[in-house]
Amino acid sequence: MQSQAIGGSMQQRNFEMIETNGVTLRVVVEGNGPLIILLHGWPQSWHLWRHQIEPLVAAGYCVAVPDQRGYGGSSSPHEVSEYTILKLTADVDGIRKALGFDTFKLIGHDWGCIVAWNTALLYESTCTAVMGLSVPFWRVGNATINPKGFDDKFWYIRHFQNEHADDELNADVERSLRILSHGLGADSPPGTWMEQLSYPSSKGLLDVLPEPEVLPPWISSEDFEYHVDQFKINGFRGPTNWYRNLHNLNSMTPQLEGKRFSQPAAFVAGTDDDVLLYDINWRDWFVEGFEDLRFLELVDGAAHWLQVEKPHETTALILRFLEEVS
To answer: Given 110, 272, 273, 274, which residue is catalytic?
Structure first.
């Protein structure tokens, strides 16, 4: 176990280096009680959940927050094949096993939400409840990479299939994260992220998003510096490799086609989250996938980075869900 001071507050975090599935995952592990695993998405790290850890520990849980493979202090394999949905979900249950728990509850955000949904379906016997933030559950595949009518338009998921996209983002990590944080954040006008579709496919991601003059109000300079430092460890290749496996997600999990969630579940997103614009009719089909959907809530004034844009509201909804299913 390692202890490390984080950010300007010099707050101590307890990290464990967990060996599972051929990789080493750096995991914040704090508290005692039933196990809750929190999964970040792209391009983040465990640090996205910094406002939620103490309240969950105080509520009586053991909280495990990994840098997922490819991120921060965890292993970052070079090969694209190391980031399939089967390996990402096995990592999550591997954390449970390494910490000595029989079961766990799972909460994911962004790509971590995709992993959480699939983990819940693949590991029904150990994952007893699942909550998603920002990304509704849908079966993704080639239609996500090359949506109909997007042929001549810039689309970041298709752009990430080209490994040169990593070079663009790695050239100036601080600038990349500043632009990406703003592009999907509540401080940018709604629709900013989707403006990428007004540019030709020949552009780069940083060409199609505005560059803010200052940091968003929901992140301090110390926290942003830590965020940048975490990405300087491994760069963007591992994180974007997740996108390079989207084409085989469905084919690797044919047993999940049409499968409904049997566990208690919940979903929360920001009212201004552009990801919800990927399918404006998502509510029509989303609820049909659950046997026990406890609630679906949209947080006013939040965009994609719920945990840091509206930390109190988001934490309250997480605690509400956990109280209902405990």
So the answer is: 110
Give me 269's structure tokens: 């997103």
Q: Please choose, from the candidates 311, 266, 319, 312, the residue with its C-alpha nearest in 3D space to the C-alpha of residue 290.
A: 266
**DSSP run (H or E) holding 237:** helix 237-241
| Model pLDDT, residue 3 | 54
Per-residue model confidence as pLDDT tens digits over 198-243: 999 999 999 999 999 999 999 999 999 999 999 999 999 999 999 9
The mean of the pLDDT values for the chain is 94
Measured CA to CA, the distance from residue 91 to residue 115 in angstroms comes to 10
Q: Coil, helix or strand for 231?
A: helix
Torsion of the alpha carbons at 243, 128, 96 and 250, rounded to the nearest 10: -20
Indicate the SS3 state at residue 321: helix
Which domain range does residue 164 map to?
A: 2-325
Strands 2-6 and 11-20: antiparallel
If DSSP codes are grouped into helix, strand and coil, which group holds residue 6?
A: strand
Active site residue 110: yes
CATH number reported for the structural domain that contains residue 250 in this entry:
3.40.50.1820
Number of domains in the chain: 1
Selected catalytic residue, list 109, 159, 227, 304:
304
- From residue 116, alpha-carbon distances to 1, 49, 267, 274 in Å are 25, 15, 12, 20
Assess contact for 267 and 296: CB atoms under 8 A: yes
